[in-house]
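Lecture notes, part 5. Sequence design as translation. It can be helpful to think of inverse folding as translation between two languages: the language of shapes and the language of residues. The source text, in structure tokens, appears below.
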């Protein structure tokens, strides 16, 4: 089964690149692999906001972490690129802002498998330029399932 998924991943990646969506795919991969690449400590205080070309913009939750991450930029670039298996980013820009909490209080209601409007908009942005309706729908479903699984994994 692993080989089939690898082939599907390669085919899907090739299809998106052929349709000019390679940049969106890279952005999506950075967002999806962020915590794995940088570890939970950094991921709790900084999250990717955008990838333009090879410049990654991060939202950081405090001036202290912003200072720390400014010193760690080369290491973060190297870790992300190593995790993704290619040079996806060359530079990082840091912006102060609110980082989505990864911790769930005990009194929080059970997890609902629903995407919010911002997540749906991101998925639409990722798939908008795919001309073929069937391909667009297949890619949309794959990304939506990944968003839901990551969202629900954070809540548990």
């Amino acid at each position: 089964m692993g080989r089939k998924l690898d082939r599907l991943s390669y085919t899907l990646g090739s299809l998106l690149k052929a349709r000019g969506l390679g940049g969106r795919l890279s952005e999506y991969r950075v967002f999806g692999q962020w915590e794995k690449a940088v570890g939970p400590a950094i991921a709790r205080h900084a999250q990717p906001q955008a990838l333009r070309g090879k410049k990654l913009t991060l939202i950081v939750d405090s001036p202290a972490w912003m200072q720390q991450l400014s010193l760690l930029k080369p290491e973060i670039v190297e870790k992300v690129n190593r995790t993704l298996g290619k040079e996806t980013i060359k530079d990082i820009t840091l912006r102060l802002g609110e980082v989505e909490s990864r911790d769930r209080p005990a009194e929080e209601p059970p997890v609902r498998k629903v995407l919010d409007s911002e997540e749906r908009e991101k998925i639409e942005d990722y798939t908008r330029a795919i001309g073929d309706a069937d391909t667009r729908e297949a890619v949309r479903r794959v990304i939506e399932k990944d968003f839901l699984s990551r969202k629900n994994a954070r809540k548990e």
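The translated text above is only one of many valid answers, since several sequences can fold into similar shapes. Confidence is low (pLDDT under 50) at residues 104-111.
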